[in-house]
Amino acid sequence: MKRSKALRYMMLFVMSIMTVLATTGCAEKIIVLNPKGPIAEQQRDLMVITLLLCSIVIVPVLILTAFIIWRYRDKKGRKARYTPNWEHSTKLELIWWGIPIVIILALAVITVKATYALEPSKPLASDKKPLTVQVTSLNWKWLFQYPEQGIATINELKIPEDVPVRFEITADSPMNSFWIPQLGGQMYAMSGMAMNLHLQADEVGHYWGSGANFTGTEFAQMYFDVEATTQEQFDQWVDDVKTGSPKLTLDGYKQLVEPSTSEVQTFSEFPEGLFEMTVTKYGASHNHGLSSKEAQKIKPDEAK
């Protein structure tokens, strides 16, 4: 008897150690659990709270499952209580139905509040002017346009730290999903639509960005570098691109639209109204999160 108790305690200890290792050491490797921006932090907290609430049911069920298998295993001289006519317990019914119902209600309230708080088109509170970046998903590359700076890049995104970034997202290719895991959640890039997403990097660093939808042969190559810099470094980079990079012409853009992979490229200029032209390329457009004034800029007639 003493030996069996010692074995059970040992198993519980090993399980505890494995749980701690899984939730701490792996957190640095799983980038969604290592946020670098206010949106990603709130999303991480939502995942952790959800996991803990679900664990209230899942962990006891797993432990009881293992215990029942061990306790009522077939063996000689088994002394487990045998009750073939037992069929109901009000107390147990209240426990295994009541606790999950309470947890589901708590998850519902938390999720609804988080959904409204993390609405992608909702501007971030800041005393700094947001930076606008227009994102276009191409086969199989990403085009980033900086309308205020007048420059564009392929597969490279640079942003200043602690500055809200307003992404306007569309696609001139099959639908994709724009994703920078350490800064925030995904936003779909779709032809004929201009989606709005607000993110921010809280510190200088290099981050990974990617397309999160399968879009064909070279889908695995559709990732991009994200670098958060100081404001001074960002301004210097903009100046370097303006003085040392070629212009992106309309013919050059048509070549980029063709299905192909690409290395990092920078452009000192791009055609005026290129993003609006892309959004309205296939006819009427739809805009998510844009104000009426901003949406007014995106019209098929004007883009032509």
Automatic annotation (TrEMBL):
Molecular function GO terms recorded: copper ion binding; cytochrome bo3 ubiquinol oxidase activity; cytochrome-c oxidase activity; oxidoreductase activity, acting on diphenols and related substances as donors, oxygen as acceptor
Catalyzed reactions per annotation: 2 a quinol + O2 = 2 a quinone + 2 H2O
GO biological process: ATP synthesis coupled electron transport
Membrane topology value: Multi-pass membrane protein
Residue spans crossing the bilayer: 46-73, 94-118
Cytochrome oxidase subunit II copper A binding domain boundaries: 128-240
EC number: 1.10.3.-
Subcellular location: Cell membrane
Keywords linked to the UniProt accession: Cell membrane, Electron transport, Lipoprotein, Membrane, Oxidoreductase, Palmitate, Respiratory chain, Signal, Transmembrane, Transmembrane helix, Transport
Broadest EC class assigned to this enzyme: oxidoreductase
Domain (Cytochrome oxidase subunit II transmembrane region profile): residue spans on this chain: 24-122
Any one Gene Ontology cellular component term annotated for this protein: plasma membrane
Pfam families in alphabetical order: COX2, COX2_TM, COX_ARM
Family of this protein: Belongs to the cytochrome c oxidase subunit 2 family.
Function comment: Catalyzes quinol oxidation with the concomitant reduction of oxygen to water. Subunit II transfers the electrons from a quinol to the binuclear center of the catalytic subunit I.
Name listed for the protein in its UniProt record: Quinol oxidase subunit 2
Organism: Paenibacillus uliginis N3/975
